[in-house]
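Please, structure for the following, as tokens.
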Amino acid sequence: METLVIALIFIGALGFLGRMVYQQFWGKSAGQCAKGCGTCAALPTENK
């Protein structure tokens, strides 16, 4: 029983880390700054 609990915690941690990596490289905010305030020079400017 203890092994099952530890395995579930381990699998959850791997899923959490995998989601973080996915968001970093392929998520909606990929390539933007980490703050998310929208004022960084890394954001592309749109021509209006």
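Residues 2-26 form the longest helix (25 residues). The mean pLDDT is 78.
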